[in-house]
Amino acid sequence: VHIVESGGGLVHAGGSLRLSCAASGFTFSSYAMTWYRQPPGKLREFVASITHPNKDTGYADSVKGRFTISRDNASNTVYLQMNNLKIEDTATYYCKVTRAGASYWGQGTQVTVSS
User: What are the tens digits of pLDDT across the range 7-21?
Assistant: First the structure.
């Protein structure tokens, strides 16, 4: 299993970013995918998830209405569209899949929101 996140960067408050998570080494369309984030000095926290095959989604209260998770099974990619970013969204964002009882993470992508 190989997971690679990308799309992070520096953005002003109120701006937008789209994160991508490219996955390989497993049947992508058969598994739910989840985004987490870890703010500086804090624990890793759930952000959003998307199931298979219905593509049902779930969000942390802190990002509801601002973030949108989606997936493209043809390209084995899950996205996180982040709008109206806030300073408190600053974190390293990680993508995860749980397969056969084991969780696999990417290396993360840094998002920094400035005032």
Answer: 999 999 999 999 999
